[in-house]
Structures
1.
Amino acid sequence: MTTAAPVNPALGQVLQFVDEHRQQFQDDLAELLRIPSVSADSAFRDDVRRAADWLVEHLTQIGLAVELVETVGHPIVYAESPPVAGAPVALVYGHYDVQPPDPLDQWISPPFEPTVRDGNVYARGACDDKGQMLTHVKSLQAWSRVAGELPLQVKLLIEGEEEVGSEHLESFLAENTDKLSCDCVVISDTSQFAPGVPAITYGLRGIAYYELHLTGPNRDLHSGVFGGGVTNPANTLAYMLHAIVDDQGWIQVPGFYDDVLPISEREREEWRRLPFEQKTYESELGVNGVTGEAGFSTLERRWARPSFDVNGLGSGYQGEGAKTVLPAKASAKFSFRLVPNQNPHKITAGLKALLEPLTPPGIRLELVEHHGGAGITFPLESPYLEAAADAIEAGFGKRPVFMREGGSIPIVNSFSERLGADVLLLGWGQNDDNLHSPNEKFSLADYHRGIRASAALWDRLAAIKKR
Amino acid sequence: MTTAAPVNPALGQVLQFVDEHRQQFQDDLAELLRIPSVSADSAFRDDVRRAADWLVEHLTQIGLAVELVETVGHPIVYAESPPVAGAPVALVYGHYDVQPPDPLDQWISPPFEPTVRDGNVYARGACDDKGQMLTHVKSLQAWSRVAGELPLQVKLLIEGEEEVGSEHLESFLAENTDKLSCDCVVISDTSQFAPGVPAITYGLRGIAYYELHLTGPNRDLHSGVFGGGVTNPANTLAYMLHAIVDDQGWIQVPGFYDDVLPISEREREEWRRLPFEQKTYESELGVNGVTGEAGFSTLERRWARPSFDVNGLGSGYQGEGAKTVLPAKASAKFSFRLVPNQNPHKITAGLKALLEPLTPPGIRLELVEHHGGAGITFPLESPYLEAAADAIEAGFGKRPVFMREGGSIPIVNSFSERLGADVLLLGWGQNDDNLHSPNEKFSLADYHRGIRASAALWDRLAAIKKR
C-alpha cells in the first residue's frame, strides 16, 4: 500500500485505531441499519426520529457540539467540532433516511435485519446513505479518541428527507449560510467507477425538462373521414421533436452549443484510461450498438456533452389492435442534459424560438417548463480535490480516477452557490449496490477503506493553507 | 317537384300508396325500433333474434321468399322476389342490429321507446340502420300491394352483426355468390351531404394500418446517467414518423403516389359546387386553420387524396410531472388512407424499404401490419348511378350530389369484388343523427322521402336493359 506521508503525526495512530476497531464500527453501522427510517412513509415517522436521535447521541459521545434541528418534516442533525485557526473548514453532508424497502418478498434477508454475506452487509440504507455517511462519523471518532482533537473544523449536516426531495433543506441552507460556511463540502453518496477503481466525481450535468402539449381539433375525429383534411397533432409532434434534434443527435435549438465548455485534453486522456469496454456496456444494455454525437466516446457523451431525450410520449389510441382515430391531442415530455456554462433559461428561450414558428395552422402549442438546473464542475486543479485524491490513496491503496456523472444532484449546486465551496463527491459504493431496490448492500471492505480515507482526508485538508 | 316521367305506369300509384301509408310505415318502424337488438351484448341475444324474426314475418307478408340463415353468431335474413326476365337484379344490403345505447343517462327519451320530437324519431337504430334499411322494405311493400309484382328482381340481405364487425357475413358472401348474384347493390347506411342536399356516395378510400414498435435498451434507464450514450427509441420514433411524411403532408414512402388516380375535372367541378364553407368547417372543429396537401381543397383531400395519420403514440412516462426516464420502448399506430388503384401490400413493402435502412444501431424495429383495404370508386357514368339519381330526384324533389367518403366500408369492397356489381350508397341520414351516440335520431321526412326514392329506384333500375 503506497501512502503519501501524513502531515499530522497522529494520522498513523488514527488509521491504526480504525483498523483495530473494524468490528466495532461494523456493529455501530448494524445498529443504525436496524432502525427503519423510511422518510416517505408516515408509518415510520417515529423510526425516522429514532435514527436522528441515535446520531445525536453518537455524535455527542464523539465530543461534537450537536443540534437536532426541527423542520416541518423530519429533523436535520447538525454537529460541529471547534474551529482550528489557519486550517480550512469542511462540511460533511449526508442523510440518515432511507428508501422504502418494497417489494419485501424479493429480499433474501429482511431489509432491517442487517446480514453479512460474501463480505457485504445487506440492509436498506447500507450504502445509501447510512453506511457511506457513517464513514465520516467513524473517522471523526477515531481522531477524537486518538488525538483528542481534529486537525481542522468539521461540520456535519445530516438530513432525514433526502429520499423525499430534501424539501426543507434548501431553506435551512438559505437561513444558515454563516453557520454552514466552509471551504469544501464532502459528500459520500455516489459510487466508485468500478470495483477496485475508487473515483472522485468532479462534475455533474444539468437539466432542462419540458412538457409539450399540442392540441388540434376539439375532439378525437375519425381518421378516415377527416384524414388529410385537418392538422394531426400527433403527426405534428413527431415533426417538432425531430426538429429539436437531427438524426445525428445534434440539437437544433438556436444557440444551444454557444456556451458549451469543451472537454479538456486532460479529461479526455483521464477517461480514455478508464476500464470501460464499449462491447461490455452494449451487451449489458442488450443493444447491438449505440448512436450519439460524432467525435465523442460514450463516456464523454454521457458525462460532458449535452443530450436530448424524449422521456415520454402520449397520443390517441394505445390499446390493443387498431383504432382509426385522428387524435385531438398529443404530448411529449423531454429533457436536455446540460453541461457547465449552459443556462437552462436560455435553452427555454431558444426552444420557444424554434418551436413557435413551426406550429402549423390548426395546432395550439403549450410548452410547460419543469425543473431546470445548471451543470457543474469543480476544477481538477482544486487543492481540495488533490487532498481527497491523496486521502483515497491512503484509504483504498489506489489513486482514484477523476470522473463526471451524467445526472444532476441539485443539492451539489445549492452548496456550491450558497456556500461558494468546492464539493467533493467521494463515493464509496459500487454500481451494483441495489440502491432503491431489494437487497441493497455495501461492501464491508469499502466501509472500512472509506473510514480510513476519511480519516486521511482530515489530515490532508488541514494541510491546505486557509484562503 | 320535378320528377322524371315513370317508366312503369304503376309508379304513380305506388308513390301515392307510399304517401297514403305514411303513418302506418312510421308505426312499423317504431315497432322494429322497440326491439333492443344490441348485437355486441349477449344479454340482448334473444332480442336480436326477435328483430330477425320480425323481419322474416314482415317480408313474408309482402310476398317475398324469406330465409332465416343461421350463423355462429346472429342470423342473417335473406329474401328475394321472383326473377324478371330482361330486367337487372338489385341486392339490398342492410342490418337490423344496433349499437349499445350507453351512456343511458344522456338520452332525453329512452333508447328503445321511439319518441317523435321536431319531426325526428329518436331511438337507437332509428337511422343506423333500421330506419334506412326499412325504406327499401316499405317500397317493396308498396309495389307488391299496388302492382302485385316488382318490376325487377330484388334480393334483400339483412344481417345482425354489422355493429360487431360483420364477422360471419364474409363467409356467407363467399359461399353464396350465385344466390346473391346481381347487377347492383343498394345500401342505405350513410348520410346526405347536408340537410336538403341528398347525395350518392360513389367512392371510398382504402386503408393500410400499422403498428411500429421500437425497442432500445433492455430496461428503462436514467436519462441523466445514460442520456447521449444510448439510442433513445422515442427520439427514433419521432425521426421515423417524420421520415414517413414531410411537413407539407407529402408521403415519403417510395412509390407511394405511383398508382394514385387523379381526381377528374368533372369531380372537382361537382365538389366545388357543394355547400361547403371552409370557415364553418374549421370553426366547427375548433381550429384556426388546417394544413394539407398543396393544390387540393379540403373535400378533395378527405375524399380523393391519400393521407397519413398517426393514430396513437406511447412511450416512457406519461403521468403527472417530470420523470427522467430514457424509455426502453416506443410505439406508434398509424395509417395511410388510400385512394383507388393503390395497393395496401405495395404500401407495406415501400414502408419497410423506407424504415429499415433508417433503423439506427441500438434499436430493434418491429412493424406490425393491421388491416388493409383498397379504395374504391364506381363510375359516375354507370347507368345504375344515373337511375339512382333519377330516383332520388323523384323521392326528395332534388337531384342528388355525387360525393365520395374518406373512410372505408369493407363490405362495399366485398360486394364489388365477389359479385362484380356496382354499389349504390344512397344515404338518407344526416351528419348530426348521433349514430353510435345518445339521442340517435332519423328525420321522418327523410324516412318518407327515402321510401319514395326507393320505390322510384325499382322503376328506374327496371328500365336498364339487362347486360
2.
Amino acid sequence: MSEEENIINLKDLGEFGLIDRITKKIKSYQNSTLLGPGDDAAIIKSEKNILISTDMLVEGIHFDMSFTPLKHLGYKSVIVNLSDIYAMNATPSQITISLGISSKYTLEAIDEFYDGVFLACEKHSVDIVGGDITSCLNGLTISITALGEANPKDIVRRSEAKENDLLIVSGDLGGAYMGLNVLQREKEVWKNNPNMQPELDDFNYILERQLKPEARKDIIELFKDLEIKPTSMIDISDGLASEIFHICKSSNVGCQVYENKIPIDPETYKTSMDFNTNPTVSALNGGEDYELLFTINQKDYEKIKNDPKLTAIGHITNKDQGINLIGNGDTVTPLKAQGWNHFNS
Amino acid sequence: MSEEENIINLKDLGEFGLIDRITKKIKSYQNSTLLGPGDDAAIIKSEKNILISTDMLVEGIHFDMSFTPLKHLGYKSVIVNLSDIYAMNATPSQITISLGISSKYTLEAIDEFYDGVFLACEKHSVDIVGGDITSCLNGLTISITALGEANPKDIVRRSEAKENDLLIVSGDLGGAYMGLNVLQREKEVWKNNPNMQPELDDFNYILERQLKPEARKDIIELFKDLEIKPTSMIDISDGLASEIFHICKSSNVGCQVYENKIPIDPETYKTSMDFNTNPTVSALNGGEDYELLFTINQKDYEKIKNDPKLTAIGHITNKDQGINLIGNGDTVTPLKAQGWNHFNS
C-alpha cells in the first residue's frame, strides 16, 4: 500500500468511492456471469437449477475482533456460505456481499477483509456480482448471499435419508470449537496481564479450524468421480448433533450414532481434555466445523470405505427408534441437539 | 395474537424457534421456486436470465425507529430491493432476508416487521426462499437479496443511453425527502416537549412516500403493453442528480435536464418552501423516491407522451456537452451529484 493510500480514510472516500475501489479489484471466473456489479442488478445466465443461500455474521456474536485477523474473517465469511451450496451437492458460482461498517474500521482494515474475500472466491472460482456497503453505528456486520448451480437430478436435499442408509461425515469434528476456547482463554489471560504473550503454538490445527475453515469442495468432486449421490446432506455449522436432528426431522427417520466412530483430531481431543470437556461433547455440540454430513445407500459403501477423508459414524433407522448415541459400553443415550442460541448467550 | 403468544419472548424462542415461526407463515407464488427455506439452500428453476440485487438497511443510518412503524419498515425493506430488479426491466421472483436483532426488540415487533415483508411479497408475487436471523448488540440490521428473471433481450442496463434519447422519469420526486424532513422536525419538537402531539395531518402524501414507498411494477408492465424497451434505466434511490450521473457515466454520454419539467407534487413543493429549501434541490438530491429514470429513443415518445405517470425531463447529448441543468431563464448550470455519503453524516 502506498503512503498516499494510507492517509485516505473511509470518510473521505465515501460509500461510492469505497464501492468503486473494491469493484475494480473484482475478477470474474464464471461464464454464467453476464453482468457483475455496477448496475441495479447483476445478470446471470442459467441453464441448470439455481441454488441460493444466505448468512449474516455480526461482530460480538459470530466473531471477536480481538483475536480474528480481518483477512481470515473475509475468507471465512465467504466459506460458510459456499459450504451451504456444496451441501446441496451443487457448485457455487456467484456471491453478493454487504457490509455494515462502523467508524472504528480503517480503509486498510476493509481492504484486508476483502483480500480474504477475494482469496476464497479465487480458490472456489466464485464471482462477486453485487453488494452493498453502508456505515453502521457499532461493529461490523457481514451479509453474504451465495448462488450455485446444479443439474436437477444431482441436487441433494436434507429430506431423503432412508432407513438402513449409512451416516457419513467428512474430516474431523470439534476442532473449530476447541480453537475458539483456546482463543477466548488467551484473551482472558491477556486482559488480566497485557504483558503476557498468548500461548498459541501448540494449537495450530484447531486455531486454523476456527479462524480459517475450508468448504469441502473436494468431497463434492469425489462424489462425481465415484458416481455417488448421497440420499441426504447438510453442512456442519451448528454441531454434529444439531445437524443429525435436521436430517432426521426433514427425512422423518431415526438414527444410531456410534460414539467411538466420531472422528476427532488428537489436538482437539487433547485440548478438550485440558478444558475438562468430554471430546465427544465438543464434537457433537461444537459448531463451525463446516464438514459435510450425509447419508448413502449401503450399496455405495464399498466405493468410499477406504477414503481417509470420510468416516461412517452410524446408520439411519425407523423414526420410532429415535435418535440415539451408542456409547462405548453399548449404552444407548437419546441424543440432544444443543446447537447455538445467540439470543440466549 | 393470543395471550400465550404475548408472553413468549425472543430469548425463549431462540433462533431456530423464530425461524420456524416465520417460515410457517411464508407463502409461495412462483412456479420457479422448487424448494424454499428449510434446507442449506433454496432451489430455483430457471430458463431465462437471473437478475440479482442486494441492499443492507441499518437502524440509525437508514431508518429511525422513533418514527418508523415496523410494518412499514418491513414493507419498505422489500420494496427497495424489488425496485432494483424492476430497474433492469425484469420481474422480481424471490428474495432472501437476513435480520440482525438486538435485545430491545420483542417478538411482537419482529412479527410486525415480517407482516410488512409478507405484504410486499404478496403484492409483487415474490417468494421468500431463505434468510438468516441472528442477534446483534445494537439496533436492527436488515439485509435483503432479490432475484428476478427476464428474457435476455428485454433486460435494460444503465449503459446503453444514446445521444438524442429522451430522459423520462416516473411519478414525482423529492417527496420522500421532504417526508423525512417533517418526521425529523416533529421528533425534535417532541424531544423538547413530550406532551406535544406531532402535527402530521397535512403531510399524508410525503409521509407515505418516505415510510411506505412503492416499486414501479406498473411502469414495467406499461413497457410490455406499449412494446417499448428503454435504452437505459435506473431506480431513483439516491436522488435524481446522482442517478443521472450514473446513467451518463455508464453510457458515456452527456445530458440536458430542464428544471421546469422535473415533476414535483404540490405537497412536496409547499413543504420544501416551508423548510426554505428550493423544491428543485429536494427533487434533485433528496433520495428514496424509488421512481424509475430511463431513456427512450425519440420514436417511442408518441406512445407515452400522454401518460400522466411519465414525464420527459430532458435529453441525452454528446459526452462533451456535459451534464447540465437548464434553468427557468434558459440558464445552464452543470449538475452536481450530491447523493448520500453515510460515512460522512
3.
Amino acid sequence: MEKIELANQEALRRMLTADPVLIDVLPAGEVLTGLEERMILHAGPPIEWDRMCGPMRGAIAGIAVFEGWARDLEDGERLAAAGELMFHPNHDFGAVGPMTGMTTLRQPVMVVENRTTGNRSYCTINEGLGKVMRFGGNDEEVLDRLRWLRDVLGPAMGAALRQSDGIALKVLTARGLTMGDEMHQRNVACSGLLLRALAPELARVATDTAALAESLAFIAGNDQFYLNVAMAMGKAIMDPVRDIEGSTIVTAMSRNGTDFGIRVSGTGDRWFTAPVEMPEGLYFPGYGAEDANPDMGDSTIVETIGLGGFAMAAAPAVAGFVGAGNASEAALFTRDMGEITVGENPEWTIPSLDYQGVPAGIDVRLVVESGIAPTINTGIAHKEPGRGQVGAGVVKAPLACFDAALVGIAERLGVA
Amino acid sequence: MEKIELANQEALRRMLTADPVLIDVLPAGEVLTGLEERMILHAGPPIEWDRMCGPMRGAIAGIAVFEGWARDLEDGERLAAAGELMFHPNHDFGAVGPMTGMTTLRQPVMVVENRTTGNRSYCTINEGLGKVMRFGGNDEEVLDRLRWLRDVLGPAMGAALRQSDGIALKVLTARGLTMGDEMHQRNVACSGLLLRALAPELARVATDTAALAESLAFIAGNDQFYLNVAMAMGKAIMDPVRDIEGSTIVTAMSRNGTDFGIRVSGTGDRWFTAPVEMPEGLYFPGYGAEDANPDMGDSTIVETIGLGGFAMAAAPAVAGFVGAGNASEAALFTRDMGEITVGENPEWTIPSLDYQGVPAGIDVRLVVESGIAPTINTGIAHKEPGRGQVGAGVVKAPLACFDAALVGIAERLGVA
C-alpha cells in the first residue's frame, strides 16, 4: 500500500507542477502524428459506427463533408457504414474534443505545451453555442463556421500566438476561479481574460481590419470560448501523469455518448468503460429529458484536473444553470469531491471557501470505498443527429468504471 | 414622515429604473458646458489652493503643464497660488473623477447617457495603476500618458462607440457582480467585459493596426479600466435623483482629500462636509500609513449606487486586497450597508448571498439613527505631490456629514 501512496504522491506532484501554455494554432494534420485522410478522431473511448449515438453520427457525416470525403450528409453516413472512414479516440492522438469531439486533418487545433515536461496537447476551437458540430449539428451554417475557423480565425490566432510569448494558462485559470468560472459550463471570465491577452496580439499581426473585427467579435460573443483551451490544458497536465507504476490516480475521464471510459495512471492507456448515464439538468425552452442524448465528450478532462463539477463552489452562478441547486449548495459539490481526491491544488483556489484549493487527483480507491462518483458539469445534446444543444446539467461518472479500474490495478500489482 | 417615505420611494424608483449607456468619448471642452481655459475641475466638494492636500496640488501643477497653461510644475504651482487658475468640483459640471479627479478642456471624457431620463455624465479615461495623475503623479511619464489618451485612445474609443449602439452598463455591471467585482477596488471582470464589447468596434474603425494593438493592450493591461466607466454610470444614475422635495436619500458622496462632502436629494446641490478620515488598509511594499494621504476622490459615487464597499460580499478577493478580512467576512460589510439603505437593487445581485440585491439608496436618517457609516473601498495616495498610489483600504464616511444633512433637511421641511 505504501507503494501506491508514493505513486499517487508522485502523480499529484506532476499535476501540481505542470505549466501549461497556449502557444499556437495549426491545422490538425500538421501537428497530430498519425492523423490521415478519412480518419476521424472522436470523443471518449473507442467506438465503431454501429454503436455510435445520434449526435455523434450527425457530426461524423458533417465532418466528412467538411473534409471533402463525402458529397453530402447521406454520402457521409454511407461511407461510415461501409467502413470507409476510420475512427479513433482523440486521447490516442494527444488531443481532446468537447461533446462529439470531431478532430480531422483540416481543422485548426490549439496547441498547449506543458513547459515543465515538454509534452503538447491539442483541441479544436470552440464553435459557440446552439447548433454546432460538437452537439451533432451538421448543416451548411455549421460547416461554414468550421470553414471560417479554418480559413480566418485559426490562422490569425496561430500567427498572433507565434509572435507572442504564449499565454500562460495556470495563472489565467486561477484568476478565472476567483471570477466565478469552473471552466466546464461557465467560462465567461476566462474567455474574457483570454481575449484580453489575445486581442493586442491579433491586432499586431492583422492585415485586414474587417477580418480582425470579425475574429474579435467571434471570440467576444462566445462565453464558452475558453472551454476548449481548458480541455487542451487538462490533457497537457494529465498526460505526464500516465504510467506511474502502482498509481491509482485517474488520468482521463471521457465519454463517446455510448460508453464512459476512464484511464488510470498505473494501468497506462487501458480504458475501463461502462455505459454512460443521463445528465440531470435544465433544458432550453421547447426541449426536455426525452430529447436528451446521454453523456458525451472529452470535456471531463476538466474535472480530472479538479475543475468543472469539482470546482462548483467557485461558480455559484453555474449551479443554477446546470440545475444543481442554489448558490449556497454549490459548495457541497466541491466538498464531496474532496472525499475522492488525494490533495488540493494550492494555486487554484476558491475565494468563497476562504481560498481552499480545488480537489485534485481522483483516486479510484477512494471512489470505490466511498461510493461517491465524480460530479461532472456538462452540456446536453439532442439525441438526434443535426439538432444541437438542448440543455446543461450534472452527471455522475459510472461507478462501474472505477470498480473495473481497481481490479485492473490489483491485477497489475499482482494482488488480485 | 409619510412625505419623506414617499419621496424616498420615488428616489429609489429613479435609481432602479435608470438605464446608463456608454455612448461616446470626446474632449471635455466639447461636452462640459461652462468649462473654460485655466479652469480645473477636481474631486470632492469645493476647495481652494491653500487648503488642498499634497497629491491634489501635484495633480493641479501637472495638469496645468498638460494644458499648456504652465511652463513647468513650479510655474503651475505659482499660477495656482497666485489665483490664476479656477477650481470647481467635477460634480457641478456633470462630471466625476477618481482620487484627485482632474478634468480639463483637452482631456477626453467618456460620455454615459441615462436613456431613461436623457441626462449625460462624464469621466476621464482611467490611466492605469502606479504613478498616475489621479494619485498625484505629474512627471513626464504621467503627462505623456495623458497625451496618448488625448491623441490616440480617446479618439479611437469615441469613433468606435459612435458607430455602435453604445454599451449598456446596467447589464454589464450585473454580470461583473457575478464575477467577483464590486466596481471600486476590483474591476477586472467588468474591464474584461468592456474590452469584449469594445474590441470589435475599435477594430472596425481602425486605420492603423499598430495604434489599435497599443489601444487594446492598454485597456487589457488595466484591471481598473472600468472604474471610471462605473463612476460616470453612477453620476448618470444619481443626477436625476436630485431635488426630490423631502427625500433624505444621498445623491453624492465625494472627497477632495481635505473635506468629505455629501449631497442629499431633498436639499439639492448643497454640500454637507466634514474632515476626511484616513483609510485603513494594506500598503504596497516600502510604504506605510505614515505615507498615506487622507481619503480622496469622486469614486464614492460607486458606493452611492450600492456598489464598492456596499457590494463587498460579491468580491471576496477584494476584501483581502483592501485589508478587510477574509472572504467569509466580506458578506458582513454588505449586510451592514443594508441597515442604512431603503432598498435592494433586484438587477444587481450577489450569487454568494443567493442572489440578494445590493443595498441601494442611502438614507441619512438611517445613518444617523444607527451610527453605521457608509463603508468605502478606496485607493490610497501618497501624501506628497508627484508620488502616486501607495495602497488600498477601507474608509468610513464621516458621520458628521450625515448629522449636518439631517439638520439641513429638517430646516428645509420646517421641522427643525
4.
Amino acid sequence: MAYTLRELAAVAQATMQGNAESEIDAVAPLDRAGARHIAYCASGHYRSLIPESTAGALVLLPEDADLFPGNALLCHDPRTAFARIANLLHPRETVVPGRHPSAVIDPSALVSESASIGPQAVIEAEAVIESGVVVGPGVVVGARCVIGANTRLEARAVIMHDCLIGKRCVISPGAVIGGEGFGYVREQDGHWLVVPQLGRVVIGDDVDVGANTTIDRGALGDTVIGEGVKLDNLIQIAHNVKIGDNTAMAGCVGVAGSAVIGKRCMIAGGVGIMGHITVGDDVEVTAMSFLKSSVDGPGRFSSSLPATSADIWARNVGRFRHFDQLARRLRRAEQTIKQILSGGKH
Amino acid sequence: MAYTLRELAAVAQATMQGNAESEIDAVAPLDRAGARHIAYCASGHYRSLIPESTAGALVLLPEDADLFPGNALLCHDPRTAFARIANLLHPRETVVPGRHPSAVIDPSALVSESASIGPQAVIEAEAVIESGVVVGPGVVVGARCVIGANTRLEARAVIMHDCLIGKRCVISPGAVIGGEGFGYVREQDGHWLVVPQLGRVVIGDDVDVGANTTIDRGALGDTVIGEGVKLDNLIQIAHNVKIGDNTAMAGCVGVAGSAVIGKRCMIAGGVGIMGHITVGDDVEVTAMSFLKSSVDGPGRFSSSLPATSADIWARNVGRFRHFDQLARRLRRAEQTIKQILSGGKH
Amino acid sequence: MAYTLRELAAVAQATMQGNAESEIDAVAPLDRAGARHIAYCASGHYRSLIPESTAGALVLLPEDADLFPGNALLCHDPRTAFARIANLLHPRETVVPGRHPSAVIDPSALVSESASIGPQAVIEAEAVIESGVVVGPGVVVGARCVIGANTRLEARAVIMHDCLIGKRCVISPGAVIGGEGFGYVREQDGHWLVVPQLGRVVIGDDVDVGANTTIDRGALGDTVIGEGVKLDNLIQIAHNVKIGDNTAMAGCVGVAGSAVIGKRCMIAGGVGIMGHITVGDDVEVTAMSFLKSSVDGPGRFSSSLPATSADIWARNVGRFRHFDQLARRLRRAEQTIKQILSGGKH
C-alpha cells in the first residue's frame, strides 16, 4: 500500500524536502531504490552514493540534504526513522483466523477464535492460545501453556508444558522454550542423579527469541525473561536465569544457570556468562568475551582477543605460557637495577 | 502424593529432627516453601534464610540444625538428599501407552504395546521402539533405529536412520542424533567431494541429550556416547567422537571429529575440544576454554580469560600483540644487566 | 553392489597391484575390513596396521605398497581416492517419487512428479519443488520458496518463505533457513523497535548445511551462500552475510551481520566473525578464534589460547590483567639501563 511523503514524514517525525504528495510503495537499499522506493543513509561510509541515488525519496541527516536534489526526509536519526517507515510500508501479514485440519488440538485447550493454527501443529491439554496468536506449521505447545495475544510461534518452535509467553512475542523457528534444565548431583560412584526440573519459563511481552535458541525451565523457581528482551539465534539460556527488560543478546551467547542479568544490557555474539553471577543494568559485553564474575552497570566489559596472522600469534601464545615466569624475571631485573643504582654490592 | 518425614528421611539417608509423621507434598525453594513443602540449604550463602523459613521441613547440614526450630532432615550432602526426595515427590508422569492417530508409523516398525507414540510423530521402516518408550509430538525416528526401554524422545527430536539409543535416556526437544558428519576432501579446483558417512550413533543407557544438541553419525565406524553421559543444550558432537561413561558437558560445547574423551569428565560451558585428541578419565575443563591437545586425567585444564573493563582490556590486548618482542626485550635487558654486573665493557 | 578392483582403480585414478578381477562390496576401516571390503591408509600414524589388514584391497601411498601383500590401489592421495570409491560403492538411496498422504501441500505449490515428499511435511503456497528433490519427514517449505533439483531437505528442516535453494544441496535435520534477521533500533526509552527483515536467503548449488544450523534472511538485500559452500552443525549466519564459493565452516561458527567472506576459505570450529568485515579469498581461521577485522587472503589467522593446567593458567591470567603496567615497567627498566650504560647520573 502506498503512502505519501507527507504521511511518511509524520511517522518518521522528519522535515520534508521536495514533493509532499509523491507516493512511496516500499523501502529499498540506497543503491537499488527506484522511483517509488524510499532508502536511507545514516553514515559517512555510504554518503558518496547519495547524489546518484534513483530513489523516490531518501531519509537523510540534515547536513546531507544538499547532496540529494530529490525528495528527502531530514532527521537526526535516519535509521530509526527508516525503521518506522519500513514498519508502516511493510506490515506483517494479516492473521487469517482458523485451524488447519491437520493440526492436533486437545479438546481441553482454549484456543481463541481469532488465532491461526497452522498445519501439523500440536496443542496439548489445557493450553491457552489468546487472540490473534499465530501458531506456525509444526509447532508444539505443551500442556497448560499460555500464549499471549498477538504472539507468533514460528515453524517447528516447541513450547514445553506449563510455560507462559507474553503478548506480541515472536518465537522463531526451531526455538525450544521450557526444556529441562541441566541439573544433576553426582553420586560417589560417578553416576549422575537427575534433579527434577519443576519450574517454568515465564516470558514477558514483546520478547523475540531467535531460531533454534533454547531456554530451559527452572529447577525450583522459574526462568524469567523480562519485557522487550531480544534474543538472537542459537542462544542457550540455562535454568533459573533472569534477564531484565529490554536486554538484547546476539547469536551464540550462552548464559549458565541462575545468572541474573539487568535491564537494557547489550550482550554481543558468542559471549559466555557464568552461572550464579549478577550483571547490573546497562552492561555491555563485547563479542566472544567471557563474563566470569558479577559486574555493576553501566559499563562495558571485554575479554576477547582479535585474530592475527597465525605465525605471529603462535609466537605470542608461546610467550603467554610463561607469562608468570616472565613477570618474575622482570621483577628481578628491576631489583638488580635498583641495587646497581644504589651502588650496593653486586 | 504425600510422604511422611520418616519416609523422606529413609530415602535421603538422613537423621530426623521433629515430627516423623508430618506430611510433605512437594519440594520448594527455601524462601517460598509452605507448611507441606520441603526445602534445603547446602551452602553458607543462603544460611541466613533458614531461621525465617516457613517450610514444613528442611534438609540441612548437621551444623545448621540449631538454626531451624521446625522439622529437619540432617545429612552431610543436603543437595543429593534433596534430589532423592524431589524424585520421590515429583516422579515423571506415568506413560500412557498408545499411538496417536496422527502419528505415521511404518508397518514394518516394531513398536511395543507399552510405548506412547505422540501426535505427528514419524516412525520409519524397521525401527524398534521398546517397552515404556515415550515418542513425543513431532518426533522422527529413522529406519532401523532401536530406542531402548523407558527412553523418552521429546518434542521434535530427530533420530536419523540406523542409530541405537539405550534404555532410560532422555533426548530433549529439537536434538538431532545421527546427522551426517562433516566429511569432505578438497579437489584441486577447490570443490569439496563429500565422503559418505556410513557409521551410526550408538548411545548407552541413562544418557541425557539437551535441546537442539547435535550428534553426528560416524564416517566409517560409529560415534559412541557411553552410559550415563549427560549433555546439555546446543552441544555439537562431531563424527566418530567417543565419550566415556558418566562424562557431563554443559551448554554450547563443541567436540571435533574423532576426539576420544574419558570417563567422568566434566566439560564446562562453551568449551571447544580439538579433533583427534585423547582426553583421559576424570578431566575437568573450565568454561570457555579450548582443549587443543591430548591430556591425561585426572586434571583440571583452562584457557579462558575473564572479562574486565573494556578500556583496560584494550590496553592489555594491545600489549599482547607485541608479546614476543616484549619477551625478547626483557631478555636483552637481563643480558645487559649481567654485563653491567660483571663489569664488562658496555 | 559389487565392483571389481579394476573398476575401482579407474574411478580412483590409481595404479593396481594384485588381482584386477577381485570383487569389493563396501568400504571399511583399516583394522576391521574383511575380504570383500576396501580400506585406506594415508598417514604414517596408522601405517603399522597395514601389514596385518585382512581387507580385500587397500588404497595406499606408492611408498607403502611393499607393506601389504594383498590387492592394492596406489596413488598420491589415498583419502580422495577412497572418497571416490566410497561414493561409488555407497550411493545415496534412490529417490522414490511420491507424496506421503500425511503431507500438507498447498494446491498452489508446484511439486515435481519425481520429487519425494515425506510424512508430516508442509509445503506452503506457490513453493516450487523441482525434480528429484527429497522433502524429509516434518520439513516445512515456506511460501514461494524454490528448491532446486535433486536437493535433499532432511527431517524437520525449515525453509522460511521466499528463499531459494540451489540444486544438489543437503539441508540437514533441524536447520532453519530464512528466519528473521536480528535487526532493531533502540528508542530513547530503551525499547527496541524491530526493523522489518525484507530480504531472502539465496543458496547456490551443491551447498550443504548442517544440523540445527541457522541462516537468517537479509534485512533489505539478501543473505547469499555461494556454490559449493559446506556448513557444519550449529552455525549461525546472520542477515546479509555473503559467503563465497567453496568456503567451508566447521561446527559452532558464528558470523555476524553483513560480513562478506571470500571463496575457498576454511573456518574452523567455534570461530566468531565480526559483522560488516570483509574476508578475502583463501583465508583460514583456526579453531576458537575471533576474526574481528577485515583481512586479505590468502592467509592463516588465529587468536585462540590452548588450555593448560588450571593452576598454571590462573597465574598467567593474573599477569595478563596487569600486562599494560608490566610493559611500562619494562620500558622504564630499559631506559634506566641505558642511563647506566651512558654513565649519566643516576
